[in-house]
Every structure is written in structure tokens, then in C-alpha cells.
Amino acid sequence: MKKISLITIIATLLITGSCKKDSSFLDVPPKQVLPTELAFSDPALVLSILGDLYNRQRDFSSLDGYPTREYPLSPSGDVEPGWRTFADFSEAFPSENGSSFIVQRTGWGYGEWYIWDYGYIRDLNLFIQRATAATKLTDGDKTRFIAEARFLRANYYFEMVKRMGGVPLITDPLAYDYSGDVTPLQKPRAKESELYDFVISEAEAIKDLLPADVNEKSRATKAATLAMEARAALYAGSIAKYGATTPQVSLSGGEVGIPAGMASGYYTKALTAAQAIINGSAGTYQLYKILPDLADNFAAVFLDKSSVNQESIFVEDFKVNSGRVHGFTTNDQPFSISDEGLDAGRLNPSLNLVEAFEKLDNTYAPMATKDGSGNPIYYANQLDIFAGRDARLAGTVLLPSGSFKGKKTDVWAGYQLADGSILTSDDAGHLKPLPGTTTPVQVVGKDGVVNGQEFRSQTGFYIRKYLDPTVGSGRRGRGSDVAFIRYRYAEVLLNAAEAAFELGQTSVAAGYMNQVRARAGLTTLLTPANITFDRIVHERRVELVFEGHTLFDMKRWRLATSVWDGIPMTVTDLVSNIGNAKKRNTQPYGLWPYKYYNPGNANNGKWIFKEVLPAPVTGSNRFQLGNYYSQIGNDVLSANPKIVKQPNQ
Amino acid sequence: MMYYRPILKLLNNQINKIMKMKFHYIILALLLATVGCKKDNYDAPSLKLTGRLVYKGEAIGVEYNQVPYELYQPGFGKVGPIGQTFGQDGTYSSLLFKGNYKFTIPPNQGPFLWKELSSGKRDSVAIALTGSQTMDVEVTPFYMIRDAKLTAVSGKVTANFNIEKVVTDANAKDIDRVSLYINKTQFVSGGDNIAATDLAGSAIGSLNNIIMNVNIPGISPSQNYVFARVGIKIAGVEDMIFSPLVKLSY
């Protein structure tokens, strides 16, 4: 009896005990997921969420590339390497055989440059909603976080409108009610002008909520917001003005195209926003003028991350040993100075670009390879042919026998013999004897130039912008942490100059242009009468090349169809009309140095140069009207019948 | 290798077992496998839809791979076109399944007018495809090159032709330029040529008896023929219209 009652008591206790524990046992909060209220209770946690949102920003050119080239897939499959995002538009030649398609295609697919990441937009909208609802954050933190997310959202919509025109403008996280009817979630495209208006109004709304701090580069600041606003308003103004020349590139609903009447309003907003930065209301930004050598100084704008650099405004930052590094220097370092053997030399600036840099007297001239009667000009040093040019040339491009990491590059295509023939080989290590001698010697440069020899320059030039001179920066394992500058003060000045020029204020425009030019050694001032549309186009090209502006500038001025008209270039095309905004630029040329060999002649051992189209260049860039706005994918079109197609597609 | 030994032993046993099975079971299994394969797969599309771009029966030449057309097959859930481009002689061909299709050309493509509906949408041609079919696509070009006579004499290609202005109403467009292109292969256009001459639209007086010529540059490896044709670039229209391709031996 005693036993039975004991068992009964134990059983009852067990049953009731387990009953109670059942609910609490199943209700253990998951350890790998943070609930929303918890995540938005601590500023450090919120910042880590925001960090992810910062990382998902999209630029045209990016030092670390993209996980995928979304549409269409690149021939190499899954990854778009950073260096290749700089290599197109005949401003550079890709010296990697797997990337030769860039110079072998005859144009771009309509789907090129397509982005449609509404998952990112939704995450930004959710962040804003949740941060607004958060109760445990201080007001100061909350305001700044929300303003940052709004900045990122506006900047991404700006990136979308540049590529796609008007897109659905969604500012709330949409929720599906599981009713089986998705039509409330299908939003039509907004007008192209409405997207720009959104970017501008968001910038106006948040600019004073963000810190005006020159030393804050990788998070949104007041200056970053104003720089975004100035650029967006300038783009909208020029699309309104120059879009009138391509009436075919518009849609009746305004999803593509902005009425010409809105141009001056946008230009005024652009000028006002840019001047807000220039007059110091967002912090003491100024042009970087630290190093005595002007070319080194220009290169250092992109390398110097100390507080001395008050030019960069908003950057995508990297840090060695943090896992967030990029291989730009590894991929593009000169071959003979490579830290990584065969990994080098992919991005070769073209002669087309090099010739665009002016002489110090503000005139345009091709590189002097021949005299008036057609004879080659002999130079004692390779660098002599580039002397007396805009300092940005040597700051952007690593010229033949230019210095990197204390060594000089060895770029030459062979010996030019007295009888007119050329003595060269397919590799620097492949020696040949000179005529009249028996000792084999090196007959071609270690860093190029040999047609089709990848990882060495095939144009005669290497890239210098972003190339990291730090020890070990070229190693794959270490990588480089040079930052990519998204907005900088010189661009703000040029934006202001362009807006002022379009508004008829040429003397204001000249003032801003001269500041940028003086920093590059062009001290002869441009007068207001010198400021023309072609000057503006030219100045942006030489100052901002390889910073992701080329395509969007050519699109908004509607110059793309003229500059990339699909017609192969001749050397005559190359050397004439420099400084003309509509100059053809369909194939990247090179400038190959040859060493003159003629013992006893006064010119023996001197250098001559030849304009050469690298052999892998078989295509020519052709930009069609249908390329002005990237094709919207059929998956999007069939999922949402309210989306109208792009014009010309 | 140590670890694999028992597994190998097991495999051997299995094989022995299979060998002991009656032979007709194996035959049966093989038959099933092959039949299964057939049932799984559709036949590839086999019906050929071909044709040309024509104006009153005369073929229209365009640039290779530049003028697109689209075929829609309604009734399969998601709507998306089968997109392809015309050949340089204006021909097209698609391999399709049996069914109903709609044929259209996207806006502002091609050197011709395509009928638009009152709503501003592009018209389409309905095609009920039951077998291979040839369908010429009638369009209204802005201009036509008539009576083109191309000759190659003493290192020079000469073209003699008339231009007919077809569209003369409110949609009429001016001539931007007329170009004579030659190439060593049969693909001849602004992007594919070894020599070209341009005649600006403003420099054209009469549209009849226009004469243009272009020198034949040295060709390596040498050949004794070139391909040539004349194209008109119409102001505000991206695609050029071309005369028929001619192979000229010299």
C-alpha cells in the first residue's frame, strides 16, 4: 500500500511537473536569431545591421568587384572582378585573355548595366521602419541611423535611375496578406523626373540630421548628402536638356525622359547644393594639395586615408587584416614589379585617354611621334614624349619607365633597326642577338609590349590611380586597402562648374574649373569665354576617369551614340579633334616605344613611338539608342504587368 | 586501402548475385531504362518559320544582327518574347513548336515604319503555326535604293544608283548620309568594312543617278574579289537600309 501511494505521488508529480515545463521548454529563444526589439535596443547592434546595408551599395566601378555580373552572365561565369569594372569604353584595354570579349564585341547587350535589387530596398525600408519604432535608442542615435538609411536608399535609387530610368518608387516595406491577390504589390514605374526629385528631396530632408564632419568618410555625412544631391540634380538637368536631342529615347508616361523645361530648375538645385559644400557649410573640404610633385599629389588623393585628405567625401573603405580588402593592385601591378608572379598588368589605359590630357598651355595635341615630314621623332628618354602635360596624366597613368615601389617599369616593343625592320621577340626572356653581334640580348620590355601577351601592358601604359605602393599590397593573401572614392571635392567643383555654365554663369564656372586645373599644374587661367560644353566634357574625362563616371556622363549628355558609334577607328581619327566632345572612341589604341638601333648614328639608343591597335582588339564599341536605359528583365515584366518596357527595345 | 577492403568485398558479392540472376530480368531492366529515357524528353522544336523583310515584294537589306523581331506565344503563364534578329539580307528564321504566335518588331527598330495601333502600341501579325511556313513581313521603309549597279574597275568600286523616297507624309525623314561600304567578307556594314565613303545627305542634289566610289585597299591575304553594298543612314533612325549585296571580282 505504501508502495502504491509512493508511486502515485511520484507519477502525479512527474506529470504536473512536465506539464508546466513543456511550454517553457519549447519557448527557448533562438540563439542565432536576434529578435527585432533586441537588435534595435543597442546602438552597436544597429550599427552592425547598418554596416551590411552600407556594404550592399552599388557603384559602377568597384575595386573589389561584384559577386555576380547579374545580367547577362559574363562568359567567365560567376564573378565580376574589380579591375574589369574599370576596363571598358576604350579608356583602357584588358590585358587578360579571358576578358578580351570587352574589346571583341561590337556593342553592349540591352540588358547590360541592369540592376533591380528590390530586396535591398525592402531591407532599407524595414530598417527605417524598425529604427523608427525602436524605444531603447537615444534620440540622437536614432535620428542619425534613420538618416543614414534614407541616404543609402536615395543613393541606391539614384544608381537605379541612372541605369533604368524611372523605376517603382517604394518607400515602405510592402507586406503580402496571403489573400491570393498580388495586385496591391504590383507598383508601376514612377517618372524618371520623380526619381530624381525623390533623391533631391530626401537629401534636403536629411542633410542637417547628419554630422558635418570632414573626417567621417565611410559613413553618410552632410557633405555626402549634398554631393549626392548636386550630382543627381545635375544629371536630371542634363537629361532634360540634352534628352531633347534624342526624342526617340522617351516614353509617353515620362518613365524615361525629362521635359526640357525642367532643365534650369535642376541646374539651379545642383549649383546650390554644390555651393553649400564649397562655402564650407558641411565642413572644411578642400582640394588635396600636399605633395610638391603634382602628379604624385594627384595619385595620393586616392591613396591617402589620413585626416590630411580633406578632398574625399564619401568612400567605400577597406582595411588590411580585416577580411575586407581588394585585389586591384594584385591584378594591375606592373609585371616586373609584381608581388605575385604572373598576377599583374590587367588594366592598361589606352592612348585615346592619354592623348586627352592637355599641354600646360591649355592646348590639345596628340603625342608627337612624327615630325612634319613624317619622320619619327627620337627621344632620349621614354618620358620625354609626355613632358609638359597636365600632371593628372602621370598621376592617373603609369607611363613607360614610370616609377612604382621604387622601381621603373620596363616597357618597350622591340628594337627599330636602321633598315626599317623591327627586332623583337615574344617574351623578354627570349633573347636575340642584335645585327652584327653574336651575344643574345633582351629585345623586348619585361613589362610588355607583345601583342596578345596577357598580364603585361599591351598599350604601353599601366594604371596608377588606386595602385597601392604599400609593401605587400600586390600579394593575393594580403591585398590592398586603398579606398574607392564615391564622392570627392573636385567632382563637386566640376558639378558646380557645369551647372553654372548651363545657367549662363560662365565666370562662376571658370572659377571652379580653374581651381581643379591649377591643382594639376594648368596655371594658365581659362577665361569665361573659354568655357564651352566641350571643355566641361573634357575636364570631367581627365579628372574623373576610372571613377565610374564615363558611362553615365556620356548617357546624360546623349553623347554615347556619337562617341561609341561602332565604326572602327583609324590613327587619323585618334590624333585629330582631341577635345571635341563627339570624338569617336570605339577602340583602345596603344603607344608602343621602340629602341632605335643604328650604331654610329646620333639617334642610336634613343626612343621612337608608334600608335598601334593591339591585336586582340577586333570589335568596336557601338552604343545603340536601346542602350540608354537598360532592359528590364522578362521575369520582372511578366511578374508585374504594370511595368512598361524601355523605349527602343 | 584498409578501409575499402570490406566495401570491395561487398561489391563483389553483389556482382556475383547479379550474375546469378536470371538473364531475362536484366533484359527487362535495360528495356525499362531505355523506354524511360524516351518518355522523359520533349522533341526539339522542328517547325521552321522563315521569311524576309519586304516592301512590295522587294527584299530590304539591313545590318546583320542589329534589327530585332519578337515572337510571343500567348497562353503559357509568363509573358516573354522569343527574340531574334534579321540577317543582313532581311531574312529571318526561327525553329518553333506548333502553336499560335504573334510576330512584332520592337519600337524604333529597323529603317522602316511598322504599323502602330491607335493606343500607341505596336501592331502584331498573328501566326497559326501547324507546319513549316514562309511568311514575308511587309513593312514601309523610309527610302529604297533602286537600280544599284556596282562595279569594280582599276582598284576602285563604283556604285551608281537611284534613291526612292517612300515615306512622304508627316513621318518622312531626311537622309543623314549615304555610304558605300566594301569588305573582304560577305558581312558589309558600318561596323564591318575595309573601306567606306560617305556622301552627306545635304550634298545630294537629285535622288537619281547618284555615283559614289571608294578605293579598294590592299587585302592580306590577297583576294581578287570584294563584297559591296550601299546604305542609307536616315536622320533620327538608328538602323541603315542597304542595297542588295554584290560580290565584285576584279
Describe it.
In chain A, 35% of the residues lie in helices and 7% in strands. Chain A has 649 residues and is α+β, with helices and mostly antiparallel strands. In chain A, strands 8-7-13-14 form a 4-stranded mixed β-sheet, with no helix packed on it. In chain A, strands 1-3 form a two-stranded antiparallel ribbon. In chain A, strands 2-12 form a two-stranded antiparallel ribbon. In chain A, β5 (403-404) and β6 (407-408) form a beta hairpin. The model of chain A is unreliable at 71-75 (pLDDT under 50). Chain B folds into 2 domains: 47-140, Carboxypeptidase-like, regulatory domain (Immunoglobulin-like), CATH 2.60.40.1120; 142-249, Immunoglobulin-like. Chain B has helices at residues 4-20, 23-40; strands spanning 47-55, 58-59, 68-72, 82-85, 91-96, 99-104, 112-113, 125-129, 133-134, 137-138, 140-141, 143-153, 156-165, 175-183, 195-200, 210-215, 225-234, 241-242, 246-249. In chain B, strands 1, 2, 5, 9 and 10 form a 5-stranded mixed β-sheet that branches. In chain B, strands 14, 15, 17, 18 and 19 form a 5-stranded antiparallel β-sheet that branches. A 4-stranded antiparallel β-sheet of chain B has the order 4-3-6-8, with no helix packed on it. Chain B starts with a helix and ends with a strand. Chain A binds chain B through residues 106, 247-248, 252, 561, 565-568, 620, 622, 624-626, 634-635, 637-639, 641, 645, 647-649, and chain B through 66, 77-81, 106-109, 120, 190-191, 236, 238.
